[in-house]
């Protein structure tokens, strides 16, 4: 087994560049694996792999690790913190949820809230989606704590968020891809009192 190191040129947003160490193993025939070790990424490859294959597999494994890591669930505490930031940034801090949490029993809505309780629930299906999408759904529910329904006053609250259209497009794409009935985040229709979506 020998080692070589080179910088990770595929710097990802939010992530510091990290070193990649490639380890070749004669025992390893086909499989490639990778893991993080401190601030380095170790990629294990078969000894006989060519330099081109090595470069290709390193990229594949870095993407795979990054995807796994982005899917890692923000905890409920992280969600609450994010909600506070979004409220401060876009709603003048006026939306103050008492609780923000993930739920797994919500498959037809991306988010919901109960203004009387100040509670917000986000579907676990959002986990792994881009941050700007999760932020949009969270901000949408925060805005519902201030304004029920989807009238002009509601959308005015969201005007400051620059990626509303993009996020809605992303979610519509997800729904279309899953061939589910059309259930956009804002398509909750006339919400029942206390359960605006
Ligand atoms: Zn809504």
Short descriptors:
single chain, 197 residues, alpha/beta, Zincin-like, 2 domains, four-stranded mixed beta sheet, three-stranded mixed beta sheet, 5 helices, 20% strand, disordered N terminus, disordered C terminus, binds zinc ion, M48 family metallopeptidase, YgjP-like_metallopeptidase, UTP_pyrophosphatase-like
Structure characterization notes:
- It is a single chain.
- The protein has 197 residues and is of the alpha/beta class.
- The protein folds into two domains: 2-71; 76-178, Metalloproteases ("zincins"), catalytic domain (Zincin-like), CATH 3.30.2010.
- It contains five helices and seven strands; from the N terminus they run E-E-E-E-H-H-E-E-E-H-H-H.
- The strands form two sheets. It has a four-stranded mixed sheet with strand order 1-2-4-3, with helices on one face. It has a three-stranded mixed sheet with strand order 5-7-6.
- The protein is elongated.
- Mean pLDDT is 81; it is low at 1-17 and 187-196.
- The structure holds zinc ion.
- Zinc ion (ZN) is lined by residues 140, 144, 150, 186, 188, 196-197.
């Amino acid at each position: 087994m020998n080692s070589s190191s080179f910088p990770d040129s595929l710097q990802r947003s939010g992530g510091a560049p990290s070193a990649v160490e490639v380890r070749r193993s004669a025992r390893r025939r086909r499989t490639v694996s990778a893991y993080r070790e401190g601030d380095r990424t170790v990629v294990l490859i078969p000894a006989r792999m060519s330099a081109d294959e090595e470069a290709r597999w390193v990229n594949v494994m870095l993407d795979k690790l990054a995807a796994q890591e982005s899917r890692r669930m923000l905890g409920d505490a992280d969600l609450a913190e994010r909600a506070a930031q979004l409220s401060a940034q876009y709603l003048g801090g006026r939306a103050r949820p008492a609780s923000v949490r993930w739920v797994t029993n919500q498959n037809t809505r991306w988010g919901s809230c109960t203004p009387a309780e100040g509670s917000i629930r986000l579907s676990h299906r959002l986990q792994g989606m881009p941050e700007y999408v999760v932020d949009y759904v969270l901000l949408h529910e925060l805005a519902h704590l201030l304004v029920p329904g989807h009238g002009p006053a509601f959308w005015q609250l969201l005007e400051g968020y620059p990626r509303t259209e993009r996020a809605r497009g992303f979610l519509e794409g997800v729904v279309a891809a899953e061939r589910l009935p059309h259930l956009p985040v804002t398509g909750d229709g006339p919400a029942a009192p206390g359960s605006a979506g």
